[in-house]
Amino acid sequence: MAEVAELKARLNQSSTNSSKPPSSDPPQVKLAPPKAPSGKRRGGQPGHPKAERTLLPPDEIRTLKPSVCRDCSRSLAGDDPAPAIHQVHELPVIKPHVTEYRCHRLRCPHCGTTTVPAVPSEARTGYGPRAQAVAALLTGSCRLGKRGTSQLFDDLFGLPLSPAMVCKLQHRTAEALKPVAEQALVYTRGHPANVDETGWKQGRQRAWLWAAVTTFVVAFLIRRTRGRAAFDDLRAGSTAVHTTDRYPVYTHLDKYKRQLCWAHLRRDFQAMIDRGGSGQAIGAALLACSDALFENWYRVRDGTLARSTCRSTYIPALRRQVGTHLRNGAACGCAKTATTCAELLSVEASLWTFARVVGVEPTNNAAEREVRHAVCWRKTSFGTDSERGSRFVERILTVIASCRRQKRNVLAFLIDAVTAHRTGAKAPTLVPAEAQQQNVVNPLLANC
């Protein structure tokens, strides 16, 4: 009977009670119940911030004035001190700027030796820093394939660029971003981070994409293993808080420097309910506790509940309730539920790190969101073919995610990095300045 129950539980696994993605759910899985109608009309609600087009500095101004009054037809003159402005935004016709180097081979009339001038480094690459940066942006941020990027260069820029050259430009960009990514990785090791990993493919072999997400900087790595060695490459020597799921590779972390993701725990609690038996009531009670936790945490984030009040009033009572339910679950007759509850009891302190440490959230959602872009890219590109390709992916993802978090222009950063690599200048950095680290607050944690 136990074996039958185990097989049934495995058969009933879905994205609601396990780590399986929603795309793998069978048709019989029940969808989340629809939210009750609010009674409000669709669209923007009264009082919401008005969204208007951004006015840009004009290149051409055309003045429009009425000549006669629309009522009495008398002549009008003068100027309106605050005229109404209507702008028309248009894109210019893009034409490649081509610099042609003509190398003259001259023969010496005295000794007969032919001398050829040195070719500048820019002439050897064949494409300028902006063209190289745009190719990297289209493939890394817009997830275009090599042929799609080649076609877009021809259609939009009038610049012939073969798929093979797109690949070469990617490799050159990866070399330019090497010091940038290495510095970003070192920075993330010194700060609390949400850590996650997802499947990848390199050549015909399995690989994993790892991510460490801090407030301002995100670091990605692709490794052929999902084990401790890959985690050490990502977070070697870090003593900061790690927010993770319950994957066993994280069990070596200090339970007081680790935050377990409550979003993942909710799926574990739902699994207890779906298995039925003596663990069903335990799962329902734990799920109710998680609902209460998130309700209070959302109030903290919104500023309607002081963090100190939440920590001193709500968290202690909630922690006692969860501890009681876990101890009851560890002694229940359902083997899987008992095992899960016993494991959570052994790292019980890791459930509440977010209440002790400012800046730590109770979920790993930040890492899940950053990994999402890479997952979509993997599904259309089927991974990478080589180590060089993997280095480009992890470095361009590091730049894109970090620039987005710092509200920096990704293309401008890439152009600076490529230019610095070609000229031997110091590479730009993703690490925020000291003043920025001290004065800029993560908007998600502003009230925590």
From TrEMBL:
Q: Where is this region: Disordered?
A: 1-60
Q: Where is the composition biased (Basic and acidic residues)?
A: 49-60
Occurrences of domain DUF6444 (ranges): 2-53
Concerning InterPro entries, the annotation shows: DUF6444, Transposase-related, Transposase_IS66_central
Where would I find the Transposase IS66 central domain in this sequence?
A: 148-390
Q: Which NCBIfam families match?
A: transpos_IS66
Q: What name has this protein been given in UniProt?
A: IS66-like element ISGob4 family transposase
Biological source species: Gemmata obscuriglobus
